[in-house]
Amino acid sequence: xxxxxxxxxxxxxxxxxVLQPGFPGTTAPDWLLRRLGExxxxxxxxxxxxxxxxQLSSLTAQLRxxxxxxxxxxxxxxxxxxxxxxxxxSSFPGNHALGAVDDVDLTRxxxxxxxxxxxxxxxxxNWAPSADVxxxxxxxxxxxxxxxxxxxxVARHTAAYVTGLQAAGVAACTKHFPGHGxxxxxxxxxxxxxxxxxxxxxxxxxLPFRAAxxxxxxxxxxxxxxxPTLDPDHPATLSLRILTDLLRGQLGYDGLIVTxxxxxxxxxATYGIERGSVLAIAAGADAICVGGGLADDETVRxxxxxxxxxxxxxxxxxxxxxxxxxxxxxxxxxxxxGAAASTSDEGSASDTGSASTAEVTRVDIGLIAARRxxxxxxxxxxxxxxxxxxxxxxxxVANIAVGDETPWGVAAELSRKLPGTETGSFSGEGAxxxxxxxxxxxxxxxxxxxxxxxxxxxxTLDTLLAARPDTVVVEMGVPQTPPRGxxxxxxxxxxxVCGHAAAEVIAGA
Length: 509
Hints:
The chain is of the alpha/beta class. The chain has helices at residues 10-17, 30-38, 53-66, 95-101, 104-120, 151-167, 198-203, 206-214, 240-250, 265-268, 273-283, 297-312, 318-336, 365-373, 411-417, 431-439, 455-467, 496-506, and strands at residues 19-20, 42-45, 71-74, 125-126, 171-177, 219-222, 256-258, 288-289, 375-378, 390-394, 422-426, 444-448, 472-475, 487-490.
């Protein structure tokens, strides 16, 4: 049962309630359990906290033994961004693959099954889906995390994802408001800026968020981006105009507003996490996400004390903090209630459009979606591989949201079909000759990720194809360049199931 430590005053409890901290390890540390007893109402999980479904279930049970209504949040988008399967790759394709299929019933079914697995492990808040319209092909951090570049498509799939996820009893947190798609800067490293007129923002960035709100999303995550048309002085996370006037006032949203990670450099390097957290709550945010990098009791104490101190100093109205804390508790009540999980067929695995009911099961819904997302271009030079190839992985620097510990590519899946398959990772200007030498006489399968954003990658493919025209090319990012190679496969994402689906085509089975 929920217990609160005696002597913890209401203001301090409210300050703890609005925090969503992370922590190290696969069991809850003593300091975290103590803070739950003092009023902390949420925790955030990352890949470092998860070893297996069984371990995760034990961890969430441990948290609920201290506070039965705790919000357990996770950054589980599926596709490239996975925490449940951080060491193996996701069983579900990500947004861009689902957008490429453009079957809202399939998107709803995938989100429902993902939500079912989260709920079975005791997770009840997912920092997903991304509703960003990837209108800038040079975007370094959104890319395949977006359903696509068409606002209408992104809107309908965002709504379907929210509906499917919440039908499984897991609250959706639609992100990154007011839209992170038209940026060329990663907010993990610096403050991005979107220079667009209000009319453009309305029909492009805001359309998917309107759809998510209409679908009943229980939470919305703010973006650390500057949008001068909306607020020339403050990034969205710290903007009263954007969070309160626009999101709550004009769009009519009344659910929980969560910040993106406050230790990201767009905020931490300009305002600091303490000042940034105070300004975010004052602007209309209800929950402070922190813990992707800073994951200790000292961070919780610093943010708690900053909020309490701001109230005492008259910089943060106490009623605003009280309102924020109550929204956190309201969401906790929703997730804890039996009404949170729908018993309807909406979002179930049988609603998959052109895929038959018999074909789709809870086990293979992700693979079926990945297969449908493939775009295959073959020339008369292509014949399916029967001998083990050499897989040349042209590896860009991973963005922080994706991380560099999740495997990607097709080598593991090809090895199962063609034992003896070898692989190597290459990058930079000398990648082409190095890959040719490593491959020897083997057939080459070149795997790329966002070729259009990396000149060295395009040059490497030029070298490989000039020397070996029978090379197979697999694009696992956003396919922006013309298909080339004897066989070109666009998977629209680098999830494990995307690699599985591509390997089936390469091996002809």
